[in-house]
Amino acid sequence: MKFSKYHALGNDYLVLDPADCPKMPEGPDVVKICHRNFGLGSDGILYGPEKSDKADFKLRILNPDASEAEKSGNGLRIFSRYLYDTNRVKEDAPFTVDTLGGVVKCVVSQKGGHITVEMGRVSFDSEAIPVTGEKREVINEEFEINGAKYKYCCATVGNPHCVLPMKEVSAKLAREIGPVIENMTSLFPNRTNVQLLQVLDKNNIKIEIWERGAGYTLASGSSSSAAAAVAHKLGLCGPDITVHMEGGDISIKIAPDFSVTMSGPATPVGIYQMNDAVLTQNIPL
Q1: Which pLDDT belongs to residue 283?
Q2: Which residues of the chain have pLDDT under 70?
């Protein structure tokens, strides 16, 4: 199998084109391909472009644990750059991509160095996210983890997010409580992405990310969208927000109806030919 590897601010994906591999990998094969030591190593696999009745292209997004993600902002930027690099789209010409989390509009500019994605409307509705319990907007609720109480807000931009506003955030804390929150299936039946949110000023926030199915992540477009929307919803930030992450910065613009436009880079890393024998090996998963 031939893969094109890209990263978006350190969040790396392998693009697998159906033209090179007609069948999308599944289960243990995905885990082996994404494994950092025994495989090619990545935060997931982008399978596409496939045909779609709803959009110009269709994209499937696989997490390193072989689960399928509804949407990925960084994944969409990488996929857009791949489409540009393979001459399927042109610079500054909008196109649409069909994902499990909805159809988005993308534009590649600056010779592939800058990608803008209209991520869709952020919702805080418990049924849409989903979050268990009565129908409500999930804002400033509270749970307890390891004896500590945390305020949280939840949102969906096509995939679920749990945002914890804090005075300070750290990678250490994200790694400690992220997996616990992700797997609170009594509260989050589809599991959830987790963001620790620190508001720096009216136009800047900092987040640390624990990504559902992938773990600690240097950057995330959908996490940036959800966290920025929560900061705006709480009245802590205006509609134009720069999101600072370990891997770099993303620009978020929030419309009055909470539709979000995300802008940032995507960088090609290389083309890899995977030895099929890797998929037959028994490795510690």
Answers
A1: 79
A2: 285
Look at residue 276 in the predicted model and tell me its pLDDT. 87
Quick: pLDDT tens for 130-175. Answer: 999 999 999 999 999 989 999 999 999 999 999 999 999 999 999 9
- Structure tokens of 223? 């996490």
141-261: CATH, from 3.30.565.10, 3.30.470.10, 3.40.1180.10, 3.10.310.10: 3.10.310.10
Tokens matching residue 84: 């540009």
Spatial CA neighbour of 200 closest among 228, 172, 171, 229: 228
CB of 222 within 8 A of CB of 193? yes
Decide if 72 contacts 100 (C-beta within 8 A): no
Give the Å distances, CA to CA, from 49 to 43, 78, 84, 261: 19, 12, 12, 22
Going from the C-alpha of 34 to that of each of 57, 140, 226, 285, the distances in angstroms are 24, 36, 26, 11
CA proximity to 97, closest of 107, 108, 89, 105: 105
Rounded to whole angstroms, the Cα distance separating 165 from 82 reads 35
Q: CA–CA separation, 226 vs 232, rounded Å? A: 10
Q: Name the helix (H) or strand (E) containing 174.
A: helix 171-182
**CATH hierarchy code of domain 2-113+267-280:** 3.10.310.10
